[in-house]
Write a structure and sequence with these properties.
- By secondary structure, the protein is mainly alpha-helical.
- Helices cover 59% and strands 5% of the residues.
- It is built from 14 helices and four strands.
- The longest helix has 20 residues, at 3-22.
């Protein structure tokens, strides 16, 4: 290894120590950084170039090469982020004059529409969960009403699955400080902390309140641990996990006869899509979902257009083949 190569490797080692000890990135994230930076070193080496000497046109060509090799836009965006951070660190420490990643953008990702249930499908799932709870044996009723209440809240209030997991039985200063939420049954509202530590309130419908009331009366049968504040309990009386919620929804959706396996985000998408179809009020849907940027919410206008297009195809005489 030549002196230049040793110098570049020493810089890389210093940077890896920086992200581990100063930035305190997770071990898995550190491995991803190492992988992307080793790729940068390999691309530079193939052209007989020191990575720290690379210019904007080099990086642009390397991104194009990776894209042509099958790297997805998402992968390239993450790779560019790692490279940008590396060159920024080199600049701070005086090893380069300017960041060669400046102005580089990954290829645009194809925007995929979120999956959403039809209105009758969502109602079928929620009704099925409640019917199962109504017909459950005495020993199974607590879990059945827990599952029904979770479905009702996910679809009726548009909660993220993490927000559902973090609901407590009541408001508390400790819970609020930890980013947890609660249901105010008297006001028919649920209070949660979403992404970016942003708090919001969403209405809770009568069906959700009824299921919650039935579950609350049986919650003690799930033997909550001493001092456990979680509203929804899983095994051994502890706060329910995301994995368990996914299993519950998969089981209910298959048993109810729906044509797809439902997960929590499908119910959130359905909540947003159905509200937009009925009201057309994009700003209101944005607030209810807790989106910081309305552009995130605008994807549901495309879902709404699909709904309208299907109606047109089915009903308009000029649309029929």
């Amino acid at each position: 290894m030549g002196a230049d190569s040793q110098h570049e490797q020493a810089l890389l080692d210093d940077y890896l120590r920086h992200i581990a000890t100063e930035k305190r990135l997770a071990e898995r994230t550190q491995l991803l950084y190492l992988h992307d930076l080793q790729r940068l070193f390999e691309l530079a080496s193939a052209e007989g170039l020191a990575p720290s000497a690379a210019q904007n046109f080099h990086l642009r060509a390397w991104v194009a090469k990776l894209h042509a090799g099958g790297a997805s836009p998402r992968t390239l965006a993450l790779t560019l982020s790692v490279w940008r951070g590396w060159y920024a660190w080199l600049g701070v420490h005086g090893h380069i004059a300017a960041n060669p990643c400046t102005g580089l953008r990954p290829p645009k990702r194809a925007q995929t529409l979120p999956k959403a249930l039809a209105v009758d499908e969502a109602i079928t799932l929620a009704d099925y969960a409640c019917q199962q709870a109504e017909n459950a044996s005495a020993t199974a009723a607590a879990l059945a009403w827990r599952d029904a209440a979770m479905v009702e809240l996910l679809y009726g209030s548009g909660l993220r699955v993490a927000e559902l997991v973090n609901l407590d039985v009541q408001a508390s200063s400790a819970g609020e400080a930890a980013g947890r939420g609660w249901v105010d049954s008297a006001a028919a509202e649920v209070h949660v902390q979403g992404k970016g530590s942003k708090r919001r309130s969403a209405p809770v419908g009568s069906k959700s309140l009824a299921a919650l009331q039935r579950y609350a009366a049986l919650r003690a049968e799930l033997q909550p641990k001493e001092g456990e504040m979680a509203l929804f309990l899983g095994a051994r009386g502890a706060r329910i996990s995301v994995a368990v919620i996914w299993q519950v929804l998969k089981k209910l959706s298959l048993a109810s006869g729906l044509p797809m396996r439902v997960h929590a985000h499908v119910l959130r998408h359905s909540f947003a899509s159905h509200l937009l179809q009925s009201s057309g009020d994009l700003r209101a849907v944005q607030e209810l979902l807790g989106h910081a940027n309305i552009r995130t919410t605008q994807i549901y206008t495309r879902l709404d257009f699909q709904h309208l297009a299907q109606t047109y195809d089915a009903a308009h005489p000029r649309a029929k083949k």
